[in-house]
């Protein structure tokens, strides 16, 4: 190409690795390319958003054991459905929604498989004592406060505050009426705010 | 009753359906939360009604923010992992689903049946456009009947241009590069290459979860 290079020089791509430039691509460009069938663009989306989806799944499920499966299933669905995504720039929120659905599917399965167990009672994965001392106390307290919610309250809270779902969507996913979702979230908020009283 | 007795007068009375002792504070939280959900500031009179009201609002705002930050922190705290999880995902996706139409290629032998997939042509277009300095090709469409040899075809691409590039000149370079590549590798009768610059991108830093 004869275009004069005023900007940052284009780094050479080592064979077999991703071109650096694709790493810099906006989500919309990557989503369009992946929708057109470019697996490299899809790989950048996986690396960019996979870790957050995994963290979300871990918080939803109350542990890491199924997070990788949820992320994997989510991306496989995403690849199939990307051509239907209207606005590629909203791909992150869209991916989080898919992850929500996949997590909910598994929560439903758990309920069916283990009706006698208090399947949700486990707290989010605990960390080593040394690490626990180091982390910001607010984060630790929030983790504890969230662990104090019932599983359905916690999931509703995450779907609402992190997943950005409407009451109707949460109701659909959890198979409960939106009015019940409103009630669940109201009780979750009340508990969390009460918890905060001790922080001041 | 631990909370103030000031009942926010605009709230729906839910006391009938939920006879709990924390009813007033619960209603207050919901009223405040509804304001936050709408992206509005609660009215001053409501907050000044009782010191509890402002404290409750602060707690609510803080918790909503912390919940979002919690996940970003989780990501940051995650130890580095090998690439196995990415490889597993990529091994399970199939490009065949994006092959699109089959584009015939001429061959001297009458019994040979050569073709190239639309998906492969899009790949050519992307590679040609990406090779132009500072550009990345996004969506690519082949408009026209590509299955009929000689049909007039328009290529429509979207592109992102690196910050600082001259957009018009860069679009011209993209157009030329795509035309040359298609002339070399296909027999399509390209009548136009439309380039729409949809984005301007910057070099991304390591921090993705803003």
From TrEMBL, chain A:
Start and end residues of each HTH luxR-type domain: 164-191
Listed GO MF terms: DNA binding; sigma factor activity
Pfam families documented for this protein: Sigma70_r2, Sigma70_r4_2
Keywords per UniProt: DNA-binding, Sigma factor, Transcription, Transcription regulation
UniProt key word Protein biosynthesis: no
Region annotation (Disordered) ranges: 1-33
CDD domains the record matches: Sigma70_r4 (cd06171)
Any one biological process term the GO annotation gives: response to stress
Homology family: Belongs to the sigma-70 factor family. ECF subfamily.
Protein name, entry field: RNA polymerase sigma factor
Protein's organism: Cryobacterium frigoriphilum
Lineage, broadest ranks: Bacteria, Bacillati, Actinomycetota, Actinomycetes, Micrococcales
